[in-house]
Amino acid sequence: MSNNLYRNLLMWQKSVSLIKEVYAQADKLPKSEEYNLKQQLKRAVVSVALNIAEGKNRKSSKEFINFLNISCGSLAETESILIICNELGFIPLSEKTMQNIEELAKMLNSLIGHIKSKQSTNK
Prior knowledge:
It is built from 4 helices and no strands. The chain is mainly alpha-helical. Helix 1 (10-26) packs antiparallel against helix 2 (37-56), helix 1 packs antiparallel against helix 4 and helix 3 packs antiparallel against helix 4 (95-121).
């Protein structure tokens, strides 16, 4: 691979750790949710890391911001599914996972804001 700079991003590393946490929780869901909540949860959490990586390897800051915004949406989707699973009584809500989601959301939003402010000063 020619450009692995995304791997150096702390937020990408944290998103991979979050994938491991969420996969472990998803595997506790009942068999009846195998093709519903379980698969949707796994797709959403993986999408966070994939969009950070893809965005980092794009050619413009505007594209990177777009992919970071998609990551934010996937992170919110992950959080929502975990809450729904808890509300349905399928799995307990992990305080650690929820804190990691919040921390990652702050990191994503901070980077988006930083890139935008950098863009406006360069105009």
